[in-house]
Fold these 4 entries.
Entry 1:
Amino acid sequence: MSTDLYDAFRQGELFLRAGQPTEAARLVQPVVEAEPANAAALELFARALLHSAQLVRAEAALRQLVELQPDDGWARFALARAMERQGKDASEHRRLAAALGFDA
């Protein structure tokens, strides 16, 4: 990861912690585009999208994260939440999240 991308990632973390998820997503999006296999960037991007209620985009990012890390219980749970908030059936992801030990 280049220095610019790393700086954008770190800034995104700070904005998300500061309660500014839309700005965090804007900052992290180029990182995800440059490094689509970077699970940490995808997770941060997905969290920012979820917190800013950008549910369609969050679902897409979470599906990408689940594809990269099928055993990530949080990603499965978050994907289920994003889907449920859109009125979609997410029972499969809920079950997998619980089986992976994440049943918050």
Entry 2:
Amino acid sequence: MTSPSDPLTLLLGQTMRSVGFLSRLPVAPRWYASAPASVMRDDARAFPLAGVLIAAGPALLLLVLDVLGVPAIMATTFAVLALVAVTGALHEDGLGDVADGFGGGADKERRLEIMKDSNIGTYGAIAIAGSLMLRVAGLTAIVAAYGSFAACIALLAVTACSRTAIVWIWASMPNARGAGVAHEQGAPSDSAVSAAAIFGLGVFAVLATATTGIVNAAAALLLALAAMQAFSRLCRRMIGGVTGDVLGASQQIVEIMLLTGLALGISIPT
């Protein structure tokens, strides 16, 4: 029997609470029983592991639909929509709010005001629609190039790595609003960021390399890194830091870039 201080027990608790925070999947109350008030900034180290669990159902759905003979474009669409349903559109909502705020606000205060509004405007609608189309297109391209099983595994890799981006950008910039969940929790510690990077990049490197090859995996990471650096600079210029919506948008951007890289179909001549 393990004690509450056992490293594996602690990591399991952090992973389960992260699943509860990042999705609509039910998590047993016992995982929250002894958690401190600032639990989420510490649990952030397990975000990539939670991503794998969150994507397991949609990935399996993709595989089953392919076995049943459903056309690839429809199977991948169902899989992406299932992933949106499991997360409660948490990250898509952040992307839409950021697009509306950055696109429609003339200064920092107005941008933050627009981002706080629950209504979705033109910029937000286009951003969310674009995200859905690009993810479906990327996943469909992976199915065409490597098969449905590879796409299923790639989806797990991408969801893990994209949640590492949440932790990194959360810790790399000050809070722009001085309120909200991200502000109340405080930034993740250096150890949490490092652990999230090890988990997320490790899962991605192993799974993506095994399914699409090391060149595609490296290309995907380079695209994601470049996109995150550009998005980080944009956030500093537009609102001076990070908000909960920025965290959601960062996940979406990285997921799109990773799928794009894996879908390139690069091969090393022999």
Entry 3:
Amino acid sequence: MKERVRPGHWLWTAYEHLAMVVGLGSLALICLAWLPLALVLRRLLPPATGVWLGRQFVMRGFRGYLGILSTLCACRFDLSALDGLGQQGPMVIAANHPSLLDAVMINSRLPNAVCVMKAELMDNPLFGAGARLARYVRNDNLLNAVLRCRSELRQGAQVVIFPEGTRTHHFPLDPFLRSTALIAVRAAVPVQTLIIEFSSPYLGKRWPLWRKPSLPLLFRVRLGRRFEAPRDARAFTAELEAYFRAELAGPTTPMAAFPAAASA
């Protein structure tokens, strides 16, 4: 029987390069296909209908994209902890941010999520039209962002935010910004934490976009503590950061810890 190709073999290395191209290219194609529709629909549809459609497309589009990564690119995602979270009412959902795939994984399971996004992403030709249709929130003006998030939460949405403000640069965690706490205080909603674990820092802050991954890639999102609605933004920011640091104090989750059947 012919020996199975293993990591380190030149054929496996070639597959890793191909998987990188397929993974990045398929996301770009999904966004490009949605871009003209999102631009037109935002002008034609009533705001409430456009928001619903925009968020549904994000959820289903990201779920399909994770399916592509699972099927063609040797990626495995254990997102079962997120099932049902979208039906648990308004809350701020706060997660650590090791990779560009974090928002994709979280939003693939939440039908009424509002992301707090960097202004440059909202203005990006690939992502901006869809994000604006879904009424995502820009982070370039803190007061406006907090008020927008409070409005969305009062309408039943769930706000997804990364308290570090950007992908982690110094693992396991960078210092937290106060925006997460300010939103929760103003809206008087609980904060549900998500812990993202990974087998590789692929697409992290220090990983160049065109550097190939070391396959297979495994990701898991698990539910952390749910904090009651805070009253003091400064104190809660310190408490939230301390909690995440305690949860992430150990080594990166080893591949053996992931269920063999884990998938998108």
Entry 4:
Amino acid sequence: MTTDHGTGPTLTTGERDAELNKRLTEELVAFNTTATGAADRGTFSVKVTDEADELVGGLAAWTWGGLCGIELLWVHGDRRKDSWGSKILRAAEEEARQRGCDRVVVSSFTFQAPGFYQRHGYVETGRTLGIPGGHADVHMFKSLTERASSELP
């Protein structure tokens, strides 16, 4: 939908615009760097494939100012018993350390895996209520400078 206000700016809504998303990211990174002095360190992923090159699981994350943010972590249901989630998470934490991060944040819906992250030393810092079905989005934090005693080996 486009709203034209005559001679002024035009407001448009619709499906996600990849070009707009790229520009907004660039602008916010520049603003954040100026405001904090912390430079953007980028994004990374962890990927596991089987012998047939089929996806077993993976993780997508970003790093900025000594903080790592896990955006997505998924493991195929048939492979979860093989501890791939733990292996992927540990690999991501090590990559974050190598990139100069000393802490990690992640969120997980209550019907997903907050207990998994807590077993790996993540601590709940808050919740966003109102997820369909009476669920919540659980926000968690972990320091990478010390291993929590509750973290799995």
